[in-house]
């Protein structure tokens, strides 16, 4: 029976009792005041008893529903209601139980997803550190704990304080705003990391996510593949040049035997052209393979940069340092020329290609910046590999040669995309 029907029966019962009591009082000729008082004494308890009987299950169900909803608020979905009614309260209790089942199921599924996600994050070789706006570590996976805190827990510690114990390059990579490649000295060989930074809002609070991907093994594998590729490239180029040379030499011999010397000049010109092309091709690779050791000397920046600007168009964003640098001027100039030409070829406006030289105490930092499209993460991760090129006619040795020259000076070459578009290449040379 519905609640509306129950309340209707209660009202009908009270009305019938009132009518019967009024008729009885009229029959016994009771005084009006006494009749009214007597009717109240009879009707009031009866009405309260009937109302209590009707409202008791309603109150009980509402109390249970209140406790259950409070449990939902606190994340407790364990309370269910035994349904023994077929009215609106029973329907409400059934709906409540269904909502609880759905929430329990979703929480269990969410727990399983979180467990899976945590397992993936903890076992990934990427070092992941999540901090708040004040630099406190909110989460760090196993790789991050190993990289920054000797495998110990990092949550609750300040990330800048942990970075003070890290190598200088790793500290620079973690504090940088832009993504980039960083070579970190230490151990048996330098480690190469691709570093990514992301900022996002969570619960109206700013969070920072730092990702450090170790690329050393991948770079070594790519380098081996690159050397295999260069063998194929050299073999292909040799065959392309030697086959025509052999063919033209045979044709020249036949022409000489036939006395047709007027055709020999064409044969010799073709052989010379192929030989010169092969010579130039081999010289490019030999220059990379036989890079001479740098001849270090004190270099004044003003005349050095003037000579650079005479060779290639580039703007200086600020005055050069007064303290001289110490490097091989010819080699570093070649590096800068290659980088500036790449900046112009990126599609950047010519006036947006700039060079900055700063004296930062322990090192000179040279920045070549442009406003081209920048590099994708794939290109950024492979740009310094030998023979990796996105140009159809490129040899893939330009940036690799630049890196070899800078590292021969015990410096570092860092590539990073700029905010607002473009690429920044940093040459870090020891002072």
Structure summarized in a few sentences:
By secondary structure, the protein is α+β, with helices and mostly antiparallel strands.
Radius of gyration based on Cα positions:
42 Å
Low-confidence stretches: none
Q: Write down the CATH class of the largest domain.
A: Alpha Beta
Order of helices and strands: HHHEEHHHEEEHHEHEEHEEHHEE
Keywords:
431 residues; alpha+beta; Beta-Lactamase; 4 domains; five-stranded antiparallel β-sheet; five-stranded mixed β-sheet; 12 helices; 55% helix
Task: Please describe the topology of this protein.
Layout: H1 3-27, H2 32-73, H3 88-123, E1 127-132, E2 137-140, H4 142-149, H5 159-163, H6 168-175, E3 180-184, E4 191-202, E5 205-214, H7 216-258, H8 264-289, E6 297-299, H9 301-311, E7 315-316, E8 325-327, H10 329-345, E9 354-359, E10 363-369, H11 377-382, H12 398-408, E11 412-417, E12 423-430
Parallel strand pairs: 7-9
Antiparallel strand pairs: 1-2, 1-5, 3-4, 4-5, 6-8, 9-10, 10-12, 11-12
Helix pairs in contact: 1-2, 2-3, 7-8, 10-12
InterPro entries: BphY/WalK/GraS-like, HAMP_dom, HATPase_C_sf, HATPase_dom, His_kinase_dom, HisK_dim/P_dom, HisK_dim/P_sf, PAS-like_dom_sf
Transmembrane segments: 7-26, 32-51
Domain Histidine kinase: 233-431
Give a verbal description of the structure.
The structure is a single chain. Helices cover 55% and strands 17% of the residues. The mean pLDDT is 79. 20% of the residues are buried. The protein has four domains: 3-111, no CATH class; 124-214, Beta-Lactamase; 219-289; 297-430, 2-Layer Sandwich (Heat Shock Protein 90). It starts with a helix and ends with a strand. A five-stranded antiparallel beta sheet has the order 2-1-5-4-3. Strands 7-9-10-12-11 form a five-stranded mixed beta sheet. The protein is α+β, with helices and mostly antiparallel strands. The longest helix has 43 residues, at 216-258.
């Amino acid at each position: 029976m519905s609640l509306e029907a129950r309340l209707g029966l209660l009202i009908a019962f009270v009305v019938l009792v009132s009518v019967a009591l009024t008729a009885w009082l009229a029959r016994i000729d009771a005084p009006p005041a006494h009749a009214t008082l007597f009717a109240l004494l009879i009707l009031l308890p009866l009405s309260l008893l009937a109302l209590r009987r009707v409202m008791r299950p309603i109150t009980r169900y509402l109390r249970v529903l209140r406790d259950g909803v409070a449990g939902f608020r606190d994340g407790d979905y364990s309370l269910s209601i035994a349904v023994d009614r077929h009215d609106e309260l029973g329907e409400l209790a059934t709906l409540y139980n269904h909502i609880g089942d759905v929430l329990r199921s979703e929480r269990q599924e969410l727990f399983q997803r979180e467990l899976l996600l945590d397992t993936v994050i903890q076992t990934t070789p990427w070092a992941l550190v999540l901090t708040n706006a004040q630099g406190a570590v909110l989460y760090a996976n196993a790789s991050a704990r190993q990289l920054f805190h000797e495998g110990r827990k990092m949550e609750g510690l300040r990330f800048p304080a942990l970075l003070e114990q890290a190598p200088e390059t790793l500290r620079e990579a973690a504090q940088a705003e832009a993504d980039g490649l960083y070579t970190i000295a230490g151990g048996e060989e330098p480690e190469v990391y691709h570093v990514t930074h992301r900022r996002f809002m969570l619960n109206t609070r700013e969070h920072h996510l730092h990702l450090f991907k170790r690329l050393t093994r991948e770079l070594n594998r790519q380098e081996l593949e690159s050397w295999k590729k260069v063998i194929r490239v050299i073999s292909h180029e040799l065959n392309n040049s030697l086959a025509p040379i052999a063919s033209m030499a045979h044709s020249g011999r036949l022409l000489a035997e036939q006395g047709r010397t007027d055709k020999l000049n064409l044969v010799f010109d073709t052989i010379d052209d192929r030989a010169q092309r092969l010579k130039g091709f081999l010289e490019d690779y030999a220059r990379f393979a036989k890079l001479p050791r740098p001849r270090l000397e004190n270099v004044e920046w003003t005349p050095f940069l003037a000579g650079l600007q005479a060779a290639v168009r580039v703007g200086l964003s600020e005055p050069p340092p007064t303290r001289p640098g110490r490097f091989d001027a010819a080699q570093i100039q070649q590096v800068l020329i290659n980088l500036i030409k790449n900046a112009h070829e990126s599609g950047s406006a010519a006036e947006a290609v700039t060079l900055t030289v700063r004296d930062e105490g322990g090192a000179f930092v040279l920045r070549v910046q442009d406003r081209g499209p920048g590099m994708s993460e794939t290109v950024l991760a492979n740009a310094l590999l030998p023979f990796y090129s996105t140009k159809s006619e490129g040899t893939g040795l330009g940036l690799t040669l630049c890196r070899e020259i800078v590292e021969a000076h015990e410096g570092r070459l860092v590539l990073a995309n700029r905010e607002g578009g473009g690429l920044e290449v940093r040459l870090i040379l020891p002072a």
